[in-house]
Write a structure and sequence with these properties.
By secondary structure, the protein is of the alpha/beta class. It has 14 helices and 16 strands.
C-alpha cells in the first residue's frame, strides 16, 4: 500500500505529526505531489495547487491564509481546529482587559525610563504612580461579539471574575449555547450590545458583514472610556475612527495583535504580536486535532470540522469505499448508482450529505472497484473528486 504524502508548510507540533503512523504516512516539507497539506500561517493564495492534493488542514481556527473558494471548486476539503486554541485565546483576552484598564504597559514603560540611584527611583515611583490609576473588572459589563468556542469561554471567564456579560451571535450553535453560562445576557443586535458595554471583545471571522464593524458611528454610541480588545481579525475595527476615539477619550484603551505604525505610536493603544495560539498547549491541541481530521478523511472519507464541505461519516460495510466529492445538484445519487450498476458493483451502504452548493457521498461496495469505474464516476457532470479508500 502506498503511503499518503503529507506536506508541511510550517513547523507543526510533533504531538500532531505523531498521530500519522509511519507505516501509512510520509511527512515532509518538500514534495511536489502531496495528498494533504498541513499548515499554520503560511499564505497559500499564490501557491500552485498540486493535482494530487486531496485535503488541507489548518492547525488553527482562521483560514484567511487559505484559498478556500478555489479549493472548494477543486473538490478539496479544508479542515481547521475550532476550539483547540480557545483556552489560550481566552487567557490572553482576560489579560488584555486587565492591561487595558489598569495601565500596566504604560506604567512599566514609565518605570523602565527612570534613572538614578534606588532612592531616587523610589521617590519617582511614589510621585508618578498616580498617573496610572485604573479601574477594576467586577461590576463592569463585557460585550462579546461572536459566541463560538472562544467567545463562550471568554464570556464564562468574565462572569467568574464578577463581570456582567452581554453576548451577540445570531448563529450560535446548540453545542455552544449549552456551554454558555445562563447568566450571560443575549443582545438582539450589535448596536444594543455596544450601548451597554464597558469592555468589548470580538470573536468573529473577517467577512463582509464584520468588516469595519466598529466604525465612527458605532464608536459614538458607545459608553465613554470603553476598553476595546481585538484578537479576532484586522479590519473588524476601523483604525482611523479608533484613533480619533482614543484621542478624544471616548475609548480608554485599545488592545490588539494587529500592529500598525499609527497604533504603535499611540500611548493608549497596546499592540502585541499575534499571540492568541502561541502556547505549547494550543499548538499541540491544534496539530493533534487537524492531523486526526486529515487521517479520518484520507483513510475513510470522514469529514469533520471542514470549513467548506459537510460533516459526513459512515461505518464501513464492504470491501471497498468510494469517496465522491461533487456539486449539490439533482439526480446526482441516481447517476452515481447507475454507473455503479453498469459496472456490476453492489452497494452495501451509502450516505450523502450536502452543504450549500457542494456535497459528499460515501459508497461502500462488497467487491473491489476498478479504475475504469472511477473514471466513469469522475465523468459525471458536477463530480469534482473520486477516489477509492
Amino acid at each position: 500500500m502506498d503511503k499518503f504524502k503529507i506536506l508541511t508548510l510550517n513547523n507543526i507540533s510533533p504531538a500532531g505529526l505523531e498521530r500519522l503512523p509511519l507505516a501509512r504516512y510520509e511527512v515532509t516539507s518538500e514534495t511536489a505531489s502531496p495528498d494533504a497539506i498541513i499548515l499554520r500561517s503560511y499564505k497559500m493564495h499564490d501557491m500552485e495547487i498540486p493535482s494530487s492534493l486531496l485535503a488541507v488542514g489548518r492547525a488553527g481556527a482562521g483560514v484567511n491564509n487559505i484559498p478556500v473558494d478555489k479549493l472548494t471548486r477543486l473538490g478539496i476539503p479544508v479542515f481547521n481546529a475550532p476550539g483547540a486554541n480557545a483556552n489560550a485565546v481566552k487567557e490572553l483576552v482576560i489579560a488584555a482587559m486587565l492591561i487595558g484598564c489598569r495601565n500596566i504597559c504604560q506604567a512599566r514603560d514609565f518605570v523602565r525610563a527612570l534613572e538614578g540611584d534606588n532612592a531616587t527611583i523610589a521617590t519617582a515611583v511614589e510621585k508618578g504612580k498616580k498617573e496610572f490609576g485604573g479601574f477594576e473588572l467586577p461590576g463592569r459589563t463585557l460585550g462579546v461579539i461572536g459566541l463560538g468556542a472562544i467567545g463562550v469561554q471568554v464570556a464564562n471567564a468574565a462572569r467568574a471574575l464578577g463581570m456582567n456579560v452581554i453576548g451577540f451571535d445570531p448563529s450560535i450553535t446548540v453545542r455552544r449555547a449549552w456551554e454558555l453560562s445562563s447568566e450571560v445576557t443575549s443582545a438582539q443586535s450589535v448596536d444594543e450590545l455596544l450601548a451597554k458595554a464597558d469592555f468589548l471583545t470580538f470573536h468573529v471571522p473577517l467577512i463582509d458583514s464584520t468588516r469595519n464593524l466598529i466604525n465612527e458611528q458605532r464608536l459614538e454610541m458607545m459608553k465613554d472610556n470603553v476598553v476595546i480588545v481585538n484578537f479576532a481579525r484586522e479590519g473588524i475595527v476601523d483604525n482611523a475612527a479608533l484613533l480619533k476615539a482614543l484621542d478624544s477619550g471616548k475609548v480608554y484603551s485599545y488592545v490588539c495583535d494587529f500592529p500598525t505604525n499609527e497604533l504603535i505610536a499611540h500611548p493608549r493603544a497596546i499592540t502585541l504580536p499575534h499571540l492568541g495560539a502561541s502556547t505549547r498547549e494550543a499548538e499541540e491541541n491544534c496539530a493533534i486535532m487537524v492531523a486526526d481530521e486529515l487521517r479520518q478523511f484520507l483513510e475513510d472519507g470522514t469529514i469533520r470540522n471542514s470549513v467548506n464541505f459537510p460533516e459526513i461519516s459512515l461505518d464501513r460495510e464492504g470491501e471497498s469505499r468510494i469517496v465522491i466529492i461533487h456539486e449539490n445538484q439533482p439526480d446526482m445519487l441516481g447517476q452515481i448508482s447507475h454507473e455503479l450498476g453498469q459496472a456490476g458493483l453492489n452497494i452495501t451502504h451509502m450516505r450523502n450529505e450536502s452543504r450549500g452548493d457542494y456535497a459528499c457521498t460515501l459508497v461502500d461496495i462488497d467487491s473491489t472497484v476498478n479504475e475504469g469505474c472511477c473514471q466513469e464516476l469522475a465523468g459525471i457532470e458536477g463530480v469534482l473528486k473520486v477516489r477509492v479508500v
